[in-house]
Amino acid sequence: MSKFVAKLILFFILIFVFYAINCGFGNAMRIDDIWNFHMIQKINSGLIPYTEVPMIVTPLFHYIGVLFFKLFGETFFSFFVYGAITDSLIFMISIEIVMKLTKNKSIIALSTVAIFFFINELSCTSYNMLSLLFVLCIVLLEIKDIDKHNDNYDYLIGMMFGLCFLCKHTNAFFFVIAFALFLIRNGIKNKNSYKDILFKFGRIICGGLPVIILFVIYLLFNNNFIDFCDMCIGGVAEFGEKNFQFLGIFISFLAFLYISVFYYLYRRKHNEVVSSFLWYFIIASTFLAFPIFNIYHLLLSFYLYIFGAVYFLDRLLYENDFFGKFVIRALQLFAAVYVVFYCTNEPSLFVDSIIKRGFKQNVSNTAFDVYSYMLNFDIAKLNQINKVHEYMIEKEEQGYNVYILSSNASLYEIPYHIVNRNKFDMILNGNMGYNGTERMIEQIKNIENPIFLKSDYSSFYQESKEVDDFIKEHYTIVDSFGEFIIYTKI
Fold it and tell me: Residue 421: pLDDT above 70?
């Protein structure tokens, strides 16, 4: 069997495994999945990003999602296949990077477990994972270029930077800075001519610039360049300011400090170009949590640390065989415990979820038809979604304008293909653009005969307190329904 065929078989096996993980594996529904699906659904319906869709990231992830919807239908099956393919590519490229860094089979095996653990925990069909994929491509290409120089690698690296920018522009910003510092530092250290450094920069820019130019043309063609700046620059700044989480930022700072000091001490003894490149990128990856420092984003920011650990373990074995083997044995024990726990726990949840889904087949409603791909979706929630929709239809027939003001709005709107051009379904700090709260309140003021289904502000920390306070102060509670309190103007 050729290596290509073996890799292809592995790729399809991984797609199945990560599809199952993306479906939930018995876990609760991820709100990010709901938001991302709804944004793709809106764009697929013809709405324009930034102007009509409340996005604070660049749109490549969403447009690839639109392609999956066109090919396989506007379903969560298509959505999760998209995520599973992304996760599978991340896994395979990560393993290839590891095999470039070490030939030790024990370290490779440990790395495989660590990579699977991270992807399992991070698995979500999102721009974060697609952005990580392009970052890993840059890492692999640069390691190959260091090992055996080829100018074409520089053009490909530039293209990957461009694609990373089109997935999540903030990630690209930090890695571009790290890469530039690495090239300058390495060029000076190895006494390369400034001409060589500039030529390498030039090739990378030539690879990435066409991607950026095409994106700017797209923005100008859709007349949403100003809206892009509002959402992706002003909105991100407001997002970070109003969703400040001290603990997450503190952990990121400690990680940044630790890896910086470790790198400095390590470089005093070694001068390998690969290690220099890795540490620059690892330091940059600490900022992947920006602008929201929660547990998920912190875990994402630590993904590249795997490769630093691989390189360190390989050097440790080379310099101190006894201590290196001791460390690896300890890590193997820890990995074995994780593998046993995972293999005995997660598949049973998967089977149990499939059985539960079988019992739900007697349910006949629109929400079930859409959300049945989530294996462990709560049947009571499905019924509530349908009842909320029936309530909204009833009130609209009576002449009211009905809106859901909640971080969960997309959950209720997706099954019935509600793709409003307003941004009421994402009243989150930052997702309304710069000074978006004030503008949102002005829009709310201008609605005639309104009925607002408002969830409790404390239910999700990113929701706008100012909008919540305005609704409570200027509108009257007339009823409650499920998770919502219903407001209107009397």
Answer: no
Q: Do 60 and 167 meet the contact criterion of CB atoms below 8 Å apart?
A: yes
Angle at Cα 57 formed by Cα 184 and Cα 204, nearest 5°?
30
3-state secondary structure of 54: coil
φ, ψ (nearest 5 deg) of residue 488: -150, 170
Which of 285, 315, 338 represents a domain boundary (last residue)? 338
Please state the rounded mean pLDDT for residues 439-459.
80
Instruction: Flag whether 199 is in a domain.
Output: yes
Mean pLDDT, range 55-65, rounded to an integer: 93
Residues 197 and 253 both lie in one domain: yes
Same domain, 323 and 388: no
Backbone angles phi, psi at 178, to 5 degrees: -60, -45
The two tokens of residue 346 are 């997660």
Over 90: is that where the pLDDT of 40 sits? yes
Distance, in Å, from the CA atom of 355 to the CA atom of 80, rounded to the nearest integer, reads 20
Cα distances (angstroms) measured from residue 330 to each of 110, 150, 295, 337: 11, 39, 26, 11
What's the structural domain count of the chain?
Answer: 2
